[in-house]
Amino acid sequence: MQKPAITQQPIHELIANRWSGRAYDASKPVTKDQVVSLLEAARWAPSCFGDQPWRYVVCHKSENPQAWQAAYDCLVQGNQSWAVNAPVLLLICADTLFSHNDKPNKWAAYDTGAATENVCLQATALGLMAHQMGGFDADKARATFKVPERYQILAMVTVGYQAAVESLTGEIKERETAARSRKPLNELFFNGKWDQSIV
Length: 199
Fold this sequence. Notes:
single chain, alpha+beta, four-stranded antiparallel beta sheet, 8 helices, 4 strands, 35% helix
C-alpha cells in the first residue's frame, strides 16, 4: 500500500512517500548492509558543534534475537501487537553533555531527531519502512541495555519491509488505512511575527 502525502505545495517524492506504517513482513529480513546504510544516513545529520549526540542501540532479529526480544519487551502492548513482525528495532538515545567540554547540550534531542529522520528517509529510499515510537518503557530500556545516565532515551524505531494491510486487524488496521493528514501551512508557519501566516 502506498500513502503519499497530499501536499499544499510540491515536495520531493522521498519525503512525500515516507510514512509510519505498522504492517511489517516478517518473512523478509533486513540485511546488515541495509542497517549500516541507515546508520550512515544518521551519521551525516547536522548537529550543534558537529557533536553528533545520537547513540542507537540496534536490535536486529536475525543477527541478535536476544537483543531484539529484549527491545520488544520494552514496548507497550499496543505497539507490540504490530511491531512483532519488524525485523529491526532501534533504541534512540541522546548524549546530554557535549563531548568537547562536558557542558549540557540543550540541542541534543533536537539533533538526534534530525538524525532519526535521516534514518526514516533512507529507509524509504531503500524500499523499507520505519516507524518512530514513544510507546515504550524508557526505564526498562535503560536497565536492559545499560544506557548510562547522561544519555536521554528518546524513542524506539521499527524497520522492515511493508506487508499487505490485510495482515493487520481491528483498530491497528483502521489506523493503517486512514487518510494521512497534517495541519494547514497557515497554522504552523509565520511571516515575520507570531500568528501572521506565511501563506
